[in-house]
Amino acid sequence: MRAPGLGFYLLNASLELCIHLAYDNSRENIVYSPFSIGTTLSMVLAGARGNTALELSNLLHVDAGYMNTRYFSEAINNSLSSRDVICHTANRLYSDRTFPVRSEYARLLYDKYKARILSVDFQSNSEAVRHEANEWVSRKTQNKIRNLLGPDSVSSETLFILLSAIYFEASWQSSFSPEQTNTGIFYMDSYNIVYVDMMNQESDFMIGHSDELNCRALEMPYRGGEYSMVILLPDSVDGLSSLEERLTEYSLANAFIGLKMRRVRLSLPKFKVEQKLTLKDTLRAIGVNDLFDDEKVDLSRMFENRGPAVTAVYHHALVEVNENGTKAAAATTALGSNSFYVPGEATSFIVDHPFMFFIKRNEYDLILFMGSVRRPV
Question: What region holds the Serpin domain (predicted)?
Fold first, then answer.
């Protein structure tokens, strides 16, 4: 039996984030990258001590030392890209020149996270630093994520910025024909509809139903089979909020395990979801408090003293799905189941009301992106 890896340890934190983000955005689309957020928090954890480290390690379900850096470095250093998939990650730290980073922490970031550290002058050039950081994120995400740091996010009082970015682009293993795309109805709830571009195809997909979550599930592999998108479609039009609240690592794993290969007539709307999040309050709600407290923060593995409190955590994610495949990007800053084919008639899987999606690396069970679509257009 394979030992649990990074995907396992990130899943619980991902679902905790999901519950709170869904509560705060109950009428909006939600999209975020558990991997990008996790990488940023992991870099902070590597520089933390005491209760600051304990709170972060409890969220990430790893200890504050070797296991934390091991899991993330394995994912970062073992290329996530392949012949068929583009998946790039990048990490960077900006440190004020009056607040030097410990040399051992700098070496750890370089060795484990491939992260560069730039010494800058926030007091005199905060706007120039903000502009340069935004340009870096834009380049690393193929211009998908722009202006991660807003006009008021960096000031002369800023001491450090940790950045993590990820870009993903892949084609479907079984692509949709544009000629088969037509206008369809999408029920946003029991009373409101919107017209969407509905993609259609008939092919073999892994499909199943979760009685535990009251939803159907379908897995769509990307070319090469290393990555896939899983759709969770609630049984009822108004069932998405209940699905988000009931998700656990066990119920989600059971839903994945229960999938079987079937012939499927699939209808899926083209969609593009994008979201900018400020995660400080969300992280505090799930147990990360000392990191944001001037009196309690302990980042003494990172800086020569206990370090400054983090003032904000920004996250910007985008996922775009069309006939050819998926383009997705995200950036964060901190201021094996058995399957078999079931013969028979094709079954219909019509995604015509709010749903959840997950983009995952199958080998590591690693969720790169996840979200909820309440309005595809």
Answer: 15-376
